[in-house]
Amino acid sequence: MRIGMRIRFRTVGTLLAVALAAAACGGDDDDGTGDDGTGDDSAGDDSSTDDGGGAVDQQVLVDFADQVVIPTYQLLADRAIALDDAAAALDDERSDESLDAARQAWADTRVPWEESEAFLFGPVSAQGWDPAMDSWPLNKDDLDAVLASGDELTQDFIRNLPETQKGFHTIEYLLWGDDSQKTAADFDDREIEYLLALTEELTLITTDLATSWTDGVGGQAAYRDVFTTAGDSGNTAYGSIDSAVQEMLGGMAGICDEVANGKIAEPFGARDPNLVESQYSFNSLLDFQDNMRSVLNAYTGDFPAGETEGSGLDDFVAEVDPDLDARFKGELDDAISALGEIPSPFPAAIQDPGNDAAIEAAQAAIATVQSTIEGDLTAVLLQ
Amino acid sequence: MRPESPHPHTLPAAAAAAVLAAVAAVASPLLGCGGGDDGGGGGDDDTAIDYRAGGATTVKDRSSNAYSLPAANLAGEELDRHRAGDAAFEATFVTGGAPVNNGLGPLYNNTACDRCHGKDGRGLPLIGVGPTSQSLVRVSLPEGEPEVPGGPVPVPGMGTQVQNHAVYGRDPEARVALAWDEQTGAYDDGTEYTLRAPRLAIERVDGESLDGVLTSLREPPPVFGLGLLEAIDDETIESREDPDDADGDGISGRVNRVWDVATGAAALGRFGHKANQPSLLQQAAAAYANDMGISSPIFPDEGGATDISLDIVELTAFYTSSLAVPAPATLTPEAERGQELFSSFGCGGCHVTEAETGDHELAIVSRQAIEPYTDLLLHDMGEGLADGRPDFLASGSEWRTAPLWGIGLVQTVQPGSGYLHDGRARTIAEAILWHGGEAEASRERFRRAAEADRAALLSFLGSL
């Protein structure tokens, strides 16, 4: 695809990046997919190069999968189970304390999901799990109809319900209500039953999602193995390391576009709070910030919420163009800060023109991040 | 641009254009690294795009976004329109009284265009599991009164497609379950392989029998590059016909003649697995009507009512006509050898590499030299693939040659997608092994080839 300088490096601050001049054909491939995948302190700084023509080392893909994607999905699955437990506790004891705990568990589950949105490729897309968990807005008419009906809420019944009446935002609506004034005393048995069915389904989906990367589901190969062997002969998804890096960059840029031009622009442009994501819980701005953290995680190979770290694209960029690395991380910080400057709750903020400057500044900060990904970062990482 | 559905908002499709106008103001340059966002770009680097794939629409992207990028030569208002079309393509429809995107159903297969054509690629052979299905089943009767002249004969109470989902409170037409029957075979060198064929269990909710009903499982095809295919002149396609195999190469190839509702006359069929749609506009309107239960002026409800305007259908059709074709990967020596084998095995007899587009109302797809790897003709593919369900002139064993451009990215875009009309082939090798009829000789050359040669051919196809 392109002939470029090939650089092999090991990271997490331990070893010098080793620059190899172009001489790069051959070398035994696929030695890079070390089994522990942690990538640090390994003495084996072998200097073989990988097939695929990329400048980035395969270890970055390994760490992206093992230190970012999989821990993110595993934390999501764990927290979904905790949410299900919290819903059960609310069922046991209809107190406002139990309700607060369930709401907190929902918000906690939201964090790893939003931090996964810079890598919405692979099984999460193909299997339809993204819309299954995160469809928005919800279909209140049919939700009310189910609540009013005598339908038995079996797992099979729930599985066949449309996605616009289950998942994160239906759970959110049940927990908070329309005006966030809901108390534990407002819940009837049917709502609790419905809530429990939805939180249970969320545990099944999030567990499948994590498993799809670690072990594979439905007869598919573990997606971790697909992604980390990019460039190996026989890899039918990623013919080169470059294509995998392009996947990472595309996901990072894509979520920036989605936050600035979708999640913010659509409700802001229409000044319509009904179009705001996570409007019942007033969690919107945290969602957006976690989306930007997802970009940072994908770039650095670290996942602070899961206390994992690995080699990342940043190590390569810092070696080749340290100013660019510093600038990009600064831009991400700025975007997260700019989102923090918008008064919460976001559904109210978009209706007050006095907040327009802050909202537009956040959009611009996110657009700057996106522009750097598509411009300078792409130039350094893929040329 | 908005990569496909990173977040499945239900967007107000009708407001998409207005919203997108605002979006365009802050919209960023193309994601497609090096794809060039205006006027072909890329001319200034040493990794120039291989324009043969989709002419000047071609982008350079081998990631899961590869099918989802706007044509590289799209700019200005047309690029804005493409983005608005993208939003329409993603819009999830809901039940009657909802404030936005209402009109779903009451019967349907899925709720948004991109729920079947995820990331603008193939769907998965998933049907009857969960609240929506990516694949669908077409039905018809062997004889009777067709819906339109020359078309399939509808099944009373079902029409020509099984809608196996329904809005809350309504029953679907039928419940569909899909299982697979496996069969084994062997390459000439003794290496064994396993193929699978679909087995459908369809149970009508009204209890009516399905005896005598013709059925055909369909996996959604990818939707990029379609404007270029629409821009190929009828004459070019007709010139490739050889219905009586006059040249004696074992390959005939003929045009389907289908019904164009806009003109109320027969027209050359070019879209769909049996080439049963004459235009992208009609294809899009039919998908809204049949797959989602969304009526439009092209296919209104029985009472003449419509759920969406013609503008929305046109926007969606425009979106599919202006999606780029991804450039192939640079050929390795092995893939280069595979390219030669592609030719010597005779694959190019139907998967005709090159085409020239003619004049089209959309200038960016006009007069382009492209490499779609299809003749857009119907071919008899043998008993193994036959569905026994004719569609206009297409017999029960004829299928339209599938374009092969971008086929090396199928598993990148949507891992788990299948190949062939019903997704039965899990790999490209399996797809080749299913070829029969006019393609039998080519298939046998592949089956008898040495392992290294088979690998080389697959390497070439994987580079597309």
Q: How would you explain this protein's 3D organization?
A:
The complex is a heterodimer of chains A (383) and B (464). Chain A has 383 residues and is mainly alpha-helical. Chain A has a single domain (2-29, 52-381), classed as M75 peptidase, HXXE motif (A middle domain of Talin 1). Chain A contains 15 helices and two strands. Chain A has helices at residues 58-92, 96-114, 123-126, 129-134, 140-148, 155-159, 168-176, 189-214, 223-228, 241-270, 284-300, 313-320, 322-340, 346-349, 356-382, and strands spanning 6-8, 18-20. Chain A has a two-stranded antiparallel sheet. The longest helix of chain A has 35 residues, at 58-92. Residues 1-54 of chain A have low confidence and may be disordered. Chain B is 24% helix and 13% strand. Chain B is of the alpha+beta class and 464 residues long. Chain B has helices at residues 16-26, 76-90, 113-116, 226-230, 234-238, 280-292, 310-321, 333-344, 410-413, 428-434, 440-448, 451-463; strands at 107-108, 136-140, 161-162, 165-166, 174-186, 192-204, 214-218, 256-260, 265-269, 355-356, 369-370, 378-380, 398-400. Chain B starts with 15 loop residues before the first helix and ends with a helix. In chain B, the strands form six sheets. Chain B has a three-stranded antiparallel β-sheet with strand order 3-2-7, with no helix packed on it. A two-stranded antiparallel ribbon of chain B has the order 1-4. Chain B has a two-stranded antiparallel sheet with strand order 5-6. At the A-B interface, helix 3, helix 4, helix 5, helix 10 and helix 15 of A face helix 1 and helix 12 of B.
